[in-house]
Amino acid sequence: MSMLPHQVTEWSVGTDPRPQPSRWSRILHFVSLRPYGNDLLTRSSASYLLAMSFLMLLVATAEGVAWGYLGSSFTPHHPWLGGVGLGFFVFVLMWFFDRSLITFDFLEEEHAKTLTGQSRPESVTAPLDGKLAHLWAWLSVHKGFIARACVIVLSIYITAPFLTQLIFKADIQNYQRQYYQEAVTVEKNRFITQMQTDQAKQIQRIEETTTKLQQEMSGTGGSGRFGYGVNAQAIQNQITAQEQRLNELYEQQRQRIADIERAFAAQDFATLAGLGIVIDQDSPILRAKAVDHIKKSPSYLQYEVAMIVLLMILSGALFALKVMQPRALKLYFSSRLHEQWNLYCLGKYDADLPAQERRE
Questions:
Q1: Average pLDDT of span 182-193
Q2: H or E element in which residue 174 lies
């Protein structure tokens, strides 16, 4: 039997006729700043939320990338591990912080009075009057924005320099390679000097032994005999061993220098450390040292100011969208209103409403 127009529905009190969203729908609603799903959400408000979601994603991404660049210096052997770890943490942190700000309920106090008859306790406002009371009320409502403003100041102070360093990443790496090259050159020169000293001593020994051989063959040596005798043969063998040792020193020098250059070309810091060359790998201090050189260029200041302005634009735009949100969106974020809507959908008000205004 078909139901007549405006006839009472078959829904019983306590039964919610709204279809339950799937798990993926809930995730989509969470990401798209729709904590109450599509209930009481107009099409224009949904489009407005989409723009706010995209802008919020840009803000969180900018901060995540900046902090990720810093985090990459925490794990020099695996820079991606530190970069992705810290970057993702900051991204999620800022995204949740911004989400709590965007979904802030501006109408909580208003609807507490109009929907439930509640009002601010007298003990809170009694000592205050006039402009001070209005200021206290404004601070109470906008405390979330004040907290975000403080975060913006810290973000500009900390994040902007890291974003600027990311722009000059190639230049910073060039300076780091220069520092590496200087450390390698110092060690190479030290080793060559040491080897040349040992080689000079060995050459001196060969010369002394050669003089001794000449004296032996001329009859003024220890044996007192002329010519190439047994003693002269022994001295000659000693000279041959000394010359072999000199060649070993030359080869040792050549091989050590080749190993150092090969390890440096491959950025094999473990091998360099084994060769006695300890290089300060990528670190915040080493980057700061490189940045000190780059800051001497006027272009660095220009880019740093540009990053500050970019962060201010993104954060300011996010603020502006929230402050200038339409009335329909303020109603959507009203927790009090959604409480009443849920009660309506459960049929609490069916007995008090005309048939045409009851839940369908």
A1: 85
A2: helix 169-217
